[in-house]
Hints:
There is one protein chain. This protein has 303 residues and is α+β, with helices and mostly antiparallel strands. It has two domains: 2-199, 3-Layer(aba) Sandwich (Rossmann fold), CATH 3.40.50.170; 215-298, Methionyl-tRNA Fmet Formyltransferase, Chain A, domain 2. It has eight helices and 18 strands. The protein has helices spanning 13-22, 46-53, 67-76, 92-95, 118-124, 160-184, 215-224, 286-291, and strands at 2-7, 24-29, 34-36, 41-43, 58-59, 80-84, 102-106, 129-136, 146-153, 231-235, 238-242, 245-247, 257-258, 263-264, 271-273, 275-278, 284-285, 297-298. The strands form five sheets. The chain has a seven-stranded mixed sheet. Strands 10-11-16-17 form a four-stranded antiparallel sheet. The longest helix has 25 residues, at 160-184. The protein starts with a strand and ends in a 5-residue tail after the last strand. It comes from Trueperella bernardiae. Belongs to the Fmt family.
Amino acid sequence: MRIIFAGTPDTSVPSLERLNEDHEVLAVLTRAPAPVGRKRVLTKSAVHDRAEELGLSVLTPATLKDAQVQAQIAELDPQAVAVVAYGLLVPQELLDVPEHGWLNLHFSLLPRWRGAAPVQYAIAHGDRVTGTAVFQIEAGLDTGPVYDVREHAIADSDTAESLLAVLAESGARQLSEVFTALDSGVASASPQEGEATLAPRLTSKDARIDWSAPAEAVSARTRGWWPAPGAWSEMAGTRVKLGPAAVTDVEGLRPGQIGTDGLVGTGTTAVRLSRVGPAGKAWMEAADWIRGLHGESSFEVAR
């Protein structure tokens, strides 16, 4: 099948590679190079870099509402467009261009967790199962009919980073198989069923830890917000970044109280922090950081 691929971050790359193997990728749409890091170095997206390595034509429009951009895409005459974490809204004029429309690989079990951060929300809210869905893009936010859904269990040790990496690989195969079915005329989409939940873009404010919550909830949030925006707490008015935390059966620490060996009290049992990032310092092992504290210390209990 003749496909245009639209994606931006590294989680989009496996789908680009798989579709390039199994189908004909006419061109790649990705976000324009953007300033990265303290020195604000203009940097291409992960998809941009990989597309060039594969010898594919790359388009980086700032908007898809521009008439010239729309004409350029229409001239390529794609049968479909594959979307994986692209980042730009697609106007109806472009949705109508391909015979089979625009199909999105979404990292959730739609309609649960529609939006920009589905894996982060699934982990942070204690879901035990998530997955991937391939659906038809329409005017609403992730509301279109679904071609295929595949489940994946969430482990107690999963972070958003580790789980996204797994789903990106399995989802790439799934997306390619849907396009093969479309090309063979045997694919069909069904309306989404069930209660919809939203996973909007996260901010640092969302990631502050409430130590009065149960240990399972604290652990889930530190893992769901890892690596971005990153969980955090305050101690004596200073922000401390927190790495993923594991649930323990240790009792006796009040919420926010810092114990030995990386332990911190919650509303139930303690959690064990893996790493911390004190203000102005590099990441370090939580147990080492705690050993350097003087006297009894506690994180502020945020609500």
